[in-house]
Structure formats: structure tokens, C-alpha cells
């Protein structure tokens, strides 16, 4: 399904994989407002479409945006309230990078009217597609599964102390999916001995996981935040490292397959 702001590929199983931060487009009419460094898009969730390219073979649906998260963050609440109280956060239309540096030239940050325009152009269509696909899957299968995929630099002092675990599973403290599914996915991470992992640590789930994970209504959602160091260089020019990525892909596929196996046996 085509749309100017996103691409939706509908699958045949109950699983939808959302990759809300892989977009790399900043519209030409906005580019002059950004600092030169911002146009390098350093906080993109690089290469996730390539890492999750097994989705079609599993029969999973996929949803990906075109616009960069520096235009609007699709994993933030539309009311623009902080996700993590008491910590540094980026906004619905971010004004700082994850390193804490300004994204916009002085006086060029988006005013409320511009934020509302971007919300209407990008955020609302993406979430309408997300809701619609989950409803389609639940109607077909009696339930739906949502895997929200992300990646991030392993060390970002402005956001968190020290180094993140390699693989960070978020279930909003067990609220966004059934306990059995959480346990099954935690087991996959524990068996991936090459990587460090945590469940509901620093990244417990962003807006998408929190808003759509409703296990009592048959929609089970989880977020996976993983470190760039698992599969790519963490400095410009942000190149994928196939020698590392080759080990990560099977783990991601096993997580997705485990979601489907769990649902076939328990829902």
C-alpha cells in the first residue's frame, strides 16, 4: 500500500513489524532551517529494513516511513509530552540530537503551527496505517502482534549513563503483551550468548508500544531497541558491518518467529 509518507506491505500472518525511525527524507523546503550536522541524520535507525528483510518470508506485514525522525518522531505522543520523566527527552519535532546538540539554526526551530502541520502530514497518516493494519490482522486472526524495531548508538551520555546492553526488549513492564510472550522473547535473548540483553530496562517501550499494546484486547506489542555496535560502525559514514550483521539477523528472525509460534499456540 503506497502513501507519500509511508510504505505498508501487508502480510498473511498476525505479525506487523513497524520501523518508525528509518526514514531519511527532510523535505527541501525545510533543509535550510537545519544545522549542517543535522542533515547527516545521525540518529537514524540505520539499515533496519535490511536487517528485517526476512519479514516477507515469515508472512509479516511491514510499515516504514519516508521522513526522517528529525522532521517528526513517530514514536512520540502527539501531545508532545516526555516519554521518560526525569530524564533528557527529544520532542515530537526534535530540536536536539541524541548527543544534545541543536538541530536547527538559531531562530529556525519549528513553531507550534509548524509542529501541527507536520503532525497532520506525517504522524497522523502513519498512525492511521498502523491502527488500520493491526485492526485488519486482528479481524483476520482474532489477535495481532506488533514488533516495533529500533536501533541506537551504544553510548549517548546526554540520554543515559554508560553503555546500553546490545538488545533491549521493552514491554512497558509487562503491560503491552501477555506474560507468556514476554517470557518467550526473553528466552530468545538469553540464548543469544553473543549479545548482552535486558528486558524493560532503560528502553521499556516508546509511544507506539504503550499506545497499541493491549493484550486484553488481543493486540500484543513489544519494542526492540538494539545497539548499532551489533551490526554497524558507530561513527560517520554510518556503514553497515556485514561481519557483525550476519550474526544479528538470525536473532531478529528468531524473535519474530517466536512471536508467531507463541500466538499459534496460546491465542
Written description of the protein model:
The protein is of the alpha/beta class and 267 residues long. The protein has one domain (2-266): Zn-dependent exopeptidases (Aminopeptidase, 3-Layer(aba) Sandwich). Helices cover 32% and strands 15% of the residues. The chain has helices at residues 28-31, 48-51, 55-58, 112-141, 179-191, 207-212, 242-266, and strands at residues 2-3, 6-9, 15-18, 61-65, 144-152, 167-170, 197-199, 219-227. An eight-stranded mixed beta sheet has the order 1-2-4-3-5-8-6-7, with helices on both faces. The model has no long low-confidence stretch (mean pLDDT 95).
List keywords for this structure.
single chain, 267 residues, alpha/beta, Aminopeptidase, eight-stranded mixed β-sheet, 8 strands, 32% helix, globular
Beta-strand residue percentage: 5-15%
CATH architecture: 3-Layer(aba) Sandwich
CATH topology: Aminopeptidase
Number of strands: 8
What gross morphology would you assign?
A: globular
The percentage helix is 25-40%
Q: Which blocks of ≥5 consecutive residues have pLDDT under 50?
A: none
Q: Termini distance?
A: 28 Å
Major sheet description? 8 strands, mixed
Report the average pLDDT across residues.
Answer: 95
- The overall number of domains is 1
Query: For the record, what CATH class applies?
Result: Alpha Beta
SSE arrangement, N to C: EEEHHHEHEEHEHEH
Structural class determined from secondary elements: alpha/beta
Number of helices: 7
Strand line-up of the largest beta sheet? 1-2-4-3-5-8-6-7
Concise summary:
By secondary structure, this protein is α/β, with parallel strands linked by helices. The chain is built from 7 helices and 8 strands; from the N terminus they run E-E-E-H-H-H-E-H-E-E-H-E-H-E-H. It has an 8-stranded mixed sheet, with helices on both faces.
Amino acid at each position: 500500500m503506497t502513501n507519500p509518507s509511508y510504505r505498508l506491505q501487508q502480510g498473511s500472518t498476525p505479525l506487523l513489524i513497524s520501523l518508525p525511525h528509518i526514514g531519511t527524507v527532510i523535505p527541501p523546503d525545510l533543509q535550510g532551517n537545519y544545522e549542517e550536522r543535522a542533515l547527516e541524520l545521525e540518529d537514524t535507525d540505520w539499515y533496519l529494513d535490511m536487517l528485517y528483510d526476512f519479514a516477507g518470508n515469515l508472512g509479516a506485514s511491514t510499515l516504514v516511513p519516508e521522513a526522517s525522525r528529525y522532521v517528526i518522531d513517530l514514536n512520540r505522543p502527539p501531545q508532545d509530552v516526555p516519554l521518560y520523566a526525569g530524564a533528557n527527552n527529544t520532542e515530537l519535532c526534535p530540536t536536539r540530537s541524541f548527543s544534545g546538540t541543536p538541530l536547527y539554526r538559531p531562530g529556525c526551530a519549528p513553531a507550534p503551527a509548524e509542529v501541527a502541520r507536520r503532525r497532520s502530514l506525517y504522524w497522523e497518516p502513519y498512525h492511521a496505517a498502523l491502527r488500520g493494519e493491526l485492526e485488519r490482522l486482528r479481524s483476520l486472526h482474532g489477535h495481532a502482534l506488533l514488533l516495533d524495531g529500533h536501533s541506537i548508538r551504544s553510548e549517548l551520555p546526554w540520554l543515559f549513563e554508560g553503555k546500553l546492553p546490545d538488545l533491549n526488549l521493552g514491554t512497558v513492564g509487562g503491560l503491552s503483551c501477555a506474560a507468556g510472550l514476554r517470557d518467550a522473547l526473553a528466552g530468545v535473548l538469553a540464548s543469544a550468548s553473543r549479545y548482552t540483553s535486558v528486558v524493560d530496562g532503560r528502553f521499556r517501550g516508546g509511544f507506539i508500544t504503550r499506545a497499541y499494546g493491549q493484550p486484553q484486547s488481543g493486540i500484543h506489542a513489544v519494542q526492540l531497541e538494539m545497539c548499532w555496535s551489533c551490526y554497524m560502525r558507530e561513527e560517520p559514514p554510518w556503514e553497515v558491518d556485514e561481519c557483525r550483521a550476519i550474526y544479528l539477523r538470525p536473532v531478529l528472525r528468531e524473535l519474530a518467529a517466536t512471536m508467531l509460534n507463541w500466538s499459534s499456540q496460546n491465542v
